[in-house]
Amino acid sequence: MEVKDLIRCGNLLQLKLGITNYNTPFATRTSHEYVISGSATLQVRAIAAQVNNGHTNVYNNLIFVKFMKVRSADDLTYTIKFSSTELGITDKTFVSDDGTWHLIHENKRQQYSFDIKVIMDVVPRAGSFSSLHEDTELTDFELRGEDGSVHIHRAVLAASSPVLRRMLGGTWRETTEGHVDVPGTSRTTLQHLKDYVYLYKLPESTGLEQLLLLGSYYMMPDLEQKCVDKLVSSLTAENACELLEFAAKHKVTRLLLAILECIQGGTVKVQEMRDYFLQGE
Q1: Among 136, 137, 160, 275, whose Cα sits 20 to 30 Å from the Cα of 68?
Q2: Which CDD domains does the entry link to (predicted)?
Q3: How many domains does the chain contain in total?
């Protein structure tokens, strides 16, 4: 099984596989385990059988994929959208499971190649609160930032974060006063947090870094992972340097490892980063 054009960057995995049946009655070939975003692995297996019908060799090939979490203690659930132009597959969805091999394609060729594109996502833990996003009548709690506040339902906050759940369910001052101050955070970032817990929506461009810090502080790993995936999806030599500095300063391990994986995989070249640093000097 020959591997070409391997790209790994955040929650994106792309590669091309080539397979040849060398006239053996039965053969199994299994790819390496490709780690996606440090959280799950994808593996491909091809099973080839050859029979002679009296005139020529007939090949029967089966292609399987296996998608599973890296750490069994990880309580998040991941999905992938699996696509392959050559195999005629578009956005076939798989959920991280216990290691089942899923049949995705059959063909009768002796030699063939196919492309793979996988985009991984995190399945949000809580149910949808989208119908309450615009509600103002029943809001009973307030998140206060440096330049303004956001009104929210405390039950939604409690369902979204174990840190906030303990705070809201205890005898903390914030519980009785009906608000909590979030130092160093803008109202815009708090609105982004509200948009996520109600709608699972992330900001389009700016604001992801500060939202990532809130997700880390409030122990919301699904929000952390989604922010990391979106940040590294548009990684360049310029912003890789800035994001590495940000991740190291704030000890955001998920982001740090995701950037290093992109650099190791060649999505961002070390030489390009060196040139950017030297240009700044």
Answers
A1: 160
A2: BTB_POZ_ZBTB_KLHL-like
A3: 3
Q: What is the pLDDT along the chain (281 residues), one digit of tens a residue?
A: 888 888 888 899 999 999 887 777 888 999 999 989 888 999 999 998 888 777 787 888 899 999 999 888 888 889 999 999 999 999 999 998 878 999 999 988 888 899 999 999 998 765 668 888 888 888 889 999 999 999 999 889 998 899 988 888 877 776 778 888 898 999 999 999 999 999 889 998 789 999 999 999 999 999 999 999 999 988 888 888 889 999 999 999 989 988 888 888 778 888 888 887 777 65
103/46 Cα distance (integer angstroms): 10
What's 97's DSSP letter?
B
Which residues are bridge partners to 2 per DSSP?
18
In a domain, 226, yes or no: no
Lookup result for tokens 């995705």: 104
196 and 86 housed in the same domain:
no
| pTM of the shown model | 0.77
Tokens of 13: 């995995």
The two three-digit tokens of residue 177, written as one number = 């006063």
User: Does any domain span residue 227?
Assistant: no
Joined tokens for residue 190 = 């708090």
Residue 161 DSSP class: -
225 belongs to a structural domain: no
Structure tokens at 9: 């960057």
Q: Which has the closest alpha carbon to 17: 41, 46, 37, 40?
A: 46
Give residue for tokens 């696509």: 83
Judge if 108 and 56 occupy the same domain.
Answer: yes
Size of the chain in residues: 281
CA neighbours closer than 13 Å in the CB half-sphere of residue 192: 23
